[in-house]
């Protein structure tokens, strides 16, 4: 009796498929291990509640500790609004932000006005978006991440999890499709 043998071509294909699986495992693993920019799994409830009232509670890793410290020191004049809290609460949130702030080379410099939306990374990731889009009533400003990122409340900003704010024309939509 003849045993079926794999043709060389099929064998090569199999090896190729195994390689792809391996490569995606490695990639997936490093994305999980290396992505410190998401919201920590167990965020401080006071932070989520108090700092998520007017915009989403931003993942602390998106700003360096110095920027968060300045935010917390100036809450009475917070981007022209009053976000003051009682001192004990400020201290608790401040400590948590310092522990979870961005680190390393990427967070070495505080962005202008301590804004995530003025950081080089934010500008790079959004360079395909026309300026008029930020001012649409359905968006209001770049700081309103949830207008376009369905997972923003959970601190997730993957490309695959975008939503289309109302009022985009066909050309403006292109930034969402590629
Ligand atoms: C009363 C409403 C309000 C509360 C409460 C509030 N903020 Fe804000 N925050 C604002 C406004 C308004 C802006 C400016 C948004 C814009 O430019 O569209 C802002 C902007 C920010 C930005 C910069 C966003 C950017 O452009 O990158 C950070 C960071 C921030 N807030 C952190 C906090 C933290 C931390 C707390 C909790 C201690 C907090 N906010 C609570 C109203 C608020
Ligand atoms: C007007 C809509 C809009 C707003 C508001 C917005 N984004 Fe985005 N964002 C996008 C789009 C569209 C992309 C995908 C761009 C691309 O891939 O070319 C994107 C991409 C990103 C990426 C890269 C994702 C990846 O997988 O590489 C990050 C991170 C991100 N946004 C974070 C934020 C944060 C944080 C905020 C709020 C401070 C925010 N965005 C506000 C539309 C928006």
What structural keywords apply?
7 helices; 178 residues; binds heme C; mainly alpha
Radius of gyration: 22 Å
How many strands? 0
- Cα distance, first to last residue? 54 Å
Helical/strand content category:
mainly alpha
Order of helices and strands: HHHHHHH
Give unreliable regions as ranges.
15-34
| Each distinct ligand | heme C
Give a quick account of the main beta sheet: strands, pairing sense, barrel closure. Answer: none
Proportion of strand residues = under 5%
Number of domains: 2
Topology:
Layout: H1 8-34, H2 45-50, H3 65-73, H4 87-100, H5 120-125, H6 131-134, H7 170-177
The protein binds heme C (2 copies).
One heme C binds at residues 62, 116-117, 125-126, 128-129, 133-134, 139, 142-145, 147-149, 157-159, 162, 165, 175-176.
Concise overview:
42% of the residues lie in helices and 0% in strands. By secondary structure, it is an all-alpha fold. The N and C termini lie far apart (54 Å).
What does this 3D model show about the protein?
- It is a single chain.
- 16% of the residues are buried.
- The chain is built from 7 helices and no strands.
- The radius of gyration is 22 Å and the shape is globular.
- The protein is mainly α and 178 residues long.
- Helix 3 packs antiparallel against helix 4.
- The chain has 2 domains: 37-115, no CATH class; 126-178, no CATH class.
- Mean pLDDT is 85; it is low at 15-34.
- It has helices at 8-34, 45-50, 65-73, 87-100, 120-125, 131-134, 170-177.
- The structure holds heme C (2 copies).
């Amino acid at each position: 009796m003849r045993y079926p043998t794999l043709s060389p071509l099929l064998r090569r294909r199999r090896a190729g498929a195994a390689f792809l699986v391996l490569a995606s495992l490695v990639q997936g693993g490093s994305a999980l291990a290396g992505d410190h920019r998401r919201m920590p799994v167990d965020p401080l409830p006071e932070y989520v509640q108090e700092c998520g009232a007017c915009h989403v509670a931003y993942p602390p890793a998106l700003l360096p500790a110095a920027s968060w410290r300045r935010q917390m020191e100036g809450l009475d004049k917070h981007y022209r609004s009053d976000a003051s809290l009682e001192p004990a609460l400020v201290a608790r949130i401040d400590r948590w932000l310092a522990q979870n702030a961005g680190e390393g080379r990427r967070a070495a410099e505080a962005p202008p006005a301590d804004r995530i939306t003025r950081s080089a990374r934010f500008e790079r990731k959004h360079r395909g978006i026309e300026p008029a889009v930020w001012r649409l009533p359905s968006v209001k400003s770049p700081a309103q991440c949830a207008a376009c990122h369905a997972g923003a409340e959970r601190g997730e900003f993957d490309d695959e999890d975008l939503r289309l704010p109302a009022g985009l024309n066909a050309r403006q939509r292109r930034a969402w499709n590629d």
